[in-house]
Design goal:
The chain is of the alpha/beta class. The chain has two domains: 43-162 and 293-372, 3-Layer(aba) Sandwich (Rossmann fold); 165-287 and 375-396, Response regulator (Rossmann fold, 3-Layer(aba) Sandwich). Helices cover 37% and strands 20% of the residues. Strand 13 (359-363) and strand 14 (370-371) form a beta hairpin. Helix 2 runs parallel beside helix 11 (319-335), helix 3 (96-108) runs parallel beside helix 4 (121-134) and helix 5 packs across helix 6.
């Protein structure tokens, strides 16, 4: 009898150990506390992203990068300063009113210490006041509107993504000079209008003339009227600011814009959009990121781990941004010794430099904009790659792409 009882006890103990091991694998955000400190509350991070809607692909890239960034910054432990990291993800559906609802849920129900997001500038601008109301640090990624760290800035906002002015400096450097005539095409909302405004400033400083500005419905699929007006203005270049799956590239090609002597320039987009840009091979412009452009150990790690985790896929345009946002949060918490009080975090994050897949970034003290590298590129055909590849002309340094300070701090 004793043998039987002992066997049952041993079996029960084994089952308990197995159940315990399984429960620790439920989420990548759970881990053992290895610091020796007991009963510390978790650090809760709420991430807003377009899991559906027009910018769904951007949300997917950011979320992948954010997860890998936490893994990298914590050496796979998913804890910092003895506190476990819990991540709560909400879909904004690329709708500002939904973004506000989801952010409020994260703040009130989940009691998050940080907000991160979102994919859309409109969604992000709607949420910024909540960060101030609830006194929580919000790391903005990948939305780019200048107004995030400009007219709508509050001290709780840190912009790890580049902004429209940084894009503009890079875009202007590629094509603008004295006497060059440029037309622009952009979506008619904050992302597009901020982007064009910033580009105009940068291009005019280099001596170029902006002869036509066209703004299209962000959901448009027919750009005939916009493109025809641009053709009639007879610019030397058409500079396009665009985001989303409904890109104008095919129609630009169909209307033979380049055959009319108008060169196209733009920011090289994500891989899905690059696949539509075959007619633009030879174009010179800029990019935020392409997987083989940055030469550093963190980017090597990102490319390698992304391929392992996602069936050989390389990281895309906004993947390193998600990773950079995650790294900056972990680095900030390290600097406060695990304290997530917003004022203490802000004091450490202002002026903070941190290493990323794009090299060193720094949150500028005056407006919390992350200064970072961008890349002047040319689109070229590469053997074995089914889309035009951004090849490096030169890296544009963080100092070179530093945007104007536009807030009233």
């Amino acid at each position: 009898m004793k043998k039987g009882k002992l066997a049952l006890v041993g079996l029960f103990a084994s089952l308990m150990m197995f159940a315990s091991a399984c429960s620790s694998e439920k989420s990548t955000t759970e881990s053992k506390n290895t610091s020796g400190k007991k009963d510390l509350p978790p650090i809760k991070i709420g991430v807003l992203a377009s899991k559906t809607g027009a910018l769904e692909s951007y949300g997917k890239q950011t979320l992948r990068g954010f997860d890998l960034g936490l893994q990298y910054a914590t050496d796979g432990k998913m804890e910092v300063e003895g506190r476990k990291i819990e991540v709560y993800i909400e879909d904004t559906e690329t709708k500002p009113e939904v973004a506000v609802q989801k952010a409020t849920k994260l703040l009130e129900e989940n009691k998050v210490d940080f907000l991160v997001g979102s994919s859309s500038s409109a969604d992000t601008l709607a949420v910024l006041p909540l960060a101030q109301e609830y006194k929580k640090v919000m790391v903005v990624e990948p939305a780019v509107a200048d107004s995030i760290t400009g007219s709508e800035f509050n001290k709780y906002i840190f912009h790890s993504a580049r902004n429209s002015s940084q894009d503009a400096v890079a875009g202007a450097a590629a094509i603008a000079k004295k006497g060059v005539k440029i037309a622009t095409l952009a979506p008619d909302y904050s992302f597009g209008r901020d982007g064009v405004a910033a580009f105009k400033d940068a291009a005019k400083k280099l001596g170029a003339d902006i002869v036509k500005e066209e703004y299209a419905d962000p959901k448009a699929t027919d750009f005939t009227s916009n493109i025809q007006k641009i053709i009639e203005a007879k610019p030397d270049y058409l500079f396009v600011v665009w985001a989303g799956a409904n890109s104008p590239w095919k129609q630009i090609a169909d209307m033979k814009v380049q055959e009319k002597g108008i060169k196209i320039s733009t920011g090289a987009p994500d891989i899905a959009a690059l696949s539509t840009m075959e007619p633009l091979i030879g174009m010179e412009g800029f990019t935020v990121y392409y997987n083989d452009l940055p030469k550093n150990k963190i980017n090597d790690w990102l490319v390698s781990e992304h391929k392992k985790k996602y069936n050989g896929e390389v990281p895309d345009l906004f993947t390193p941004g998600g990773m950079s946002a995650a790294i900056s949060i972990v680095e900030a918490v390290k600097k406060t010794k695990g304290d997530t009080d917003a004022d203490k975090l802000i004091s450490k994050m202002e002026g903070m430099s941190f290493d990323t897949p794009k090299g060193k970034m720094t949150y500028r003290k005056e407006d919390h904009q992350a200064l970072q590298s961008l890349y002047a590129i040319k689109l070229e055909k590469k053997e074995g790659v089914p889309y035009p590849v951004p090849t490096l002309i030169r890296e544009l340094t963080p100092e070179e792409t530093a945007p104007p300070i536009r807030n009233k701090k």
